[in-house]
Amino acid sequence: MKRGREFPSVTSGQLHSMSPIPSPTLSTPSPRVNEGMSQGTPACPSSCASTSASKRGRGRTRGVSLEKSLGSGSAKLSVHIPEGECGGVSSTAAILSTKIGMLVRGLIPISVNKWVDVPTEVKEYIMDRVLDQFDLDYTRHEDKRSEQNKKNRSKLTVNHAAGSRSFQRTRACMERMDAFQRKCDLEGKTYTEIEVYSEILGKKSGYVRGLGRAVKPPPSSTLTTQSSDLQHQLAKARDEIEAMRAAREKDLQEFAKKQAEMEATLRDHREEQRVEQERIRLEQEERMRIEHEERIQLEQERMRKEQERLRAEISKELEKKMSSVMEKKMSDMSKRLFSQFGGSKR
């Protein structure tokens, strides 16, 4: 895409006649507005000028796609904006956004932060320039046609649900359906879905009416044979289903019986286990009691023997002590007697 500058489609006299745009931070109009309105080219700040000397920027949006879309004709581009929305949804919505961006960047300084701060004259000028090249369609032609069709439909007194088929053809089809129903009741036969469609809607080579071309009609000579075969197969299938149901019920009964027997056996086994465990517990308690009594008896016997041994030892000690005491006393007495009797002889 070629790069360059595009002058806004507005004269300097028209823009100088507008009131200056107030800036929320600056007391004087922006240089970009003054130069853009007087010379037709948006001004660039000093920082941009110093940067462009060392590095070439992207450049100003030229609106080439808009010029290509408009071409040499005078027809406007149509942009559909749905009801309740603020943006277009058609293929020309991006071109409209580009055009609005070009006008805003060329007419409104960058220091303006809110759309409400832009003067009404500038807003109207931007809107006029947009409407010169775009047709903003808020209501589609299809919606208008739909509203008209709704009004026409509401005027109907009888609902028509037969589609493109006329009432005459519908009546004839209903009569054939009633006649076929009476025929089935009299003959007592059962027809397939394909046979019913063929009889009522008529036969057509290659497909069955009402079922589409995916369903192929059977040959007319085999319809009766096929119907009887189907009835025979249906009866056979019913018998098989009944036999399977009876066998299944029998299996269920046997299974329930076996399950009851297993539960009874399990209960008996659990009872036997409980009785056996109780017997083992009682035997263990009895054995422990007997062992305890035996240990008590042995301990008592040991204590008795120990007491007897202690008594015997004590008796022996006493006898020894008594004999020694007696001997000592006897010797003392004999000494006293000897001393008494010996002294008297002298």
TrEMBL record:
Residues 227-320 form a coiled coil. PANTHER family: NO APICAL MERISTEM-ASSOCIATED C-TERMINAL DOMAIN-CONTAINING PROTEIN, OS12G0282400 PROTEIN-RELATED. Residues 1-72, 141-160, 323-346 are annotated as: Disordered. It comes from Morella rubra (Chinese bayberry). This is Uncharacterized protein. It comes from the Eukaryota. Residues 17-31, 41-54 have a biased composition (Low complexity). Residues 141-150, 323-335 have a biased composition (Basic and acidic residues). Keywords: Coiled coil.
